[in-house]
Design a protein that fits this description.
The protein is 35% helix and 35% strand. With 159 residues, it is α+β, with helices and mostly antiparallel strands.
Length: 159
């Protein structure tokens, strides 16, 4: 009698486990028609096209989110300068690809040029000061990107 009860209990548990593994209340059973030899290649082509389409959509949405992130970054500009007897460098750091306009005032003259930051957001302007004219120089740097602009300036001694 104990063996029979044990066997019924084990059978009942096995049936419950099999039922739980093979169907779910949220899943519906859909019977798909068996493809004929002519429609097999058409079905494979359709499946691969829809897979490629979803992959393209995924890549496209990832690309859009990256673009949105870079366009929402706050533009900034920081500058530093280094001057020796024969050369001067103005180092600019901003967002990658930003337009950088540098207006340099030195020895009573002013020059202006626009360049672009590299992929790290860096740009270096190297120039040789006039040996006859020493004193203070001023660099005003404006970075522009995605409709934003930021300006900073520095003054430094040139000998």
């Amino acid at each position: 009698m104990k063996n029979r009860t044990f066997l019924i209990l084990i059978s009942f548990i096995a049936i419950l486990l099999l039922t739980a593994c093979t169907s779910s209340p949220t899943q519906s059973v859909i019977s798909a028609p068996t493809p004929t030899p002519n429609s097999v290649s058409e079905q494979s082509t359709t499946d691969s096209v829809s897979t490629q389409s979803s992959t393209t959509d995924s890549v496209s949405s990832q690309s859009n989110s990256v673009s949105n992130q870079s366009s929402t970054q706050q533009l900034f500009v920081s500058i530093s300068s280094t001057s020796t007897q024969n050369s001067t460098s103005i180092n600019v750091h901003t967002l990658p690809g930003a337009a950088i306009t540098i207006e340099l005032t030195y020895c009573g003259q002013s020059s202006k040029e626009t360049k672009y930051a590299d992929s790290a957001g860096e740009y270096v302007l190297n120039w040789t000061p006039d040996a006859k004219c020493g004193g203070m120089a001023t660099a005003m740097v404006t970075a522009s990107s995605n409709g934003q602009s930021s300006t900073s300036s520095t003054s430094f001694s040139v000998s």
